[in-house]
Every structure is written in structure tokens, then in C-alpha cells.
């Protein structure tokens, strides 16, 4: 698992918790409430996983790139909408994976 250099954070997550949350996601112990947004391996753009899904044994060993962490499903969906708008403004398209990868891993 890898993380974008500048991942997106949900407004419901206090900044002082960022390092702790990153470690918990990386180790597979994320709180069940958190939503982890990753780049898709296939043709789709992004996937949302619950914190509970990150606790499954294989998740942390999968070749996933974490793009964002939100405090709820609604916040994760809003974050994806926001990323899409940002991508369209900067690139003129909706190739979210290429846009996010260009931001660095």
C-alpha cells in the first residue's frame, strides 16, 4: 500500500490525528467509521473502503494507492466530487487516476 504525497482529508477529521490515522490504515487497524479512498486497479477511477474493510488481512498487502480519508461515507462522496471538479478545472477531463498520480505517490 502506498499513499499520495498530499492525500485528501475529510473536514470531519482533526489535523492533529492525521499521523495516527495514516499509521492505523497502513497497519490495518483503521477505525470502522473512517472511509478510505483508493485508486482503482481496473477501469474504474476510485474506490471507497470502510475502515472495517482495511482491517481484513489482505488489505494492507494489496497494491493500493490511498488518495483520501474521510470521516463518513457522505464525506467520502463529497471528497470525490471535489476531486473531480479540481481535476476538470486543471486538466479539462475527468481522468482522476492520472490526475492524482501526477500529484505524486
Secondary-structure map with pairings?
Blueprint: E1 2-9, H1 18-27, E2 35-39, E3 46-50, H2 51-54, E4 65-70, H3 73-91, H4 96-102
Parallel strand pairs: 1-4
Antiparallel strand pairs: 2-3, 2-4
Description:
It is built from four helices and four strands; from the N terminus they run E-H-E-E-H-E-H-H. The chain has helices spanning 18-27, 51-54, 73-91, 96-102, and strands spanning 2-9, 35-39, 46-50, 65-70. Strand 2 and strand 3 form a beta hairpin. It is globular, with a radius of gyration of 13 Å. The chain starts with a strand and ends with a helix.
Q: Would you tell me the overall average pLDDT?
A: 91
- The portion of residues forming beta strands comes to 15-25%
Give me the side-by-side strand order of the main sheet: 1-4-2-3
Q: Uncertain segments of ≥5 residues (pLDDT<50)?
A: none
Number of domains: 1
Major sheet characteristics: 4 strands, mixed
Structural class: alpha+beta
Shape: globular
What level of helicity do the residues show? 25-40%
Using only C-alpha atoms, the radius of gyration works out to 13 Å
Tell me the series of helices and strands, N- to C-terminal: EHEEHEHH
Number of strands: 4
Distance between the termini: 11 Å
Number of helices: 4
Amino acid at each position: 500500500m502506498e499513499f499520495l504525497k498530499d492525500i485528501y482529508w475529510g473536514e470531519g477529521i482533526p489535523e492533529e490525528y492525521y499521523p495516527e490515522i495514516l499509521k492505523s490504515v497502513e497497519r490495518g487497524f483503521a477505525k470502522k467509521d473512517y472511509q478510505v479512498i483508493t485508486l482503482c486497479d481496473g477501469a474504474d477511477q476510485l474506490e471507497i473502503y470502510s475502515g472495517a474493510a482495511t482491517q481484513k488481512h489482505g488489505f494492507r498487502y494489496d497494491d493500493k494507492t490511498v488518495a483520501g480519508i474521510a470521516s463518513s461515507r457522505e464525506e467520502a462522496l463529497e471528497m470525490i466530487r471535489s476531486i473531480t471538479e479540481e481535476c476538470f478545472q486543471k486538466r479539462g477531463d475527468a481522468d482522476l487516476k492520472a490526475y492524482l498520480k501526477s500529484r505524486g505517490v
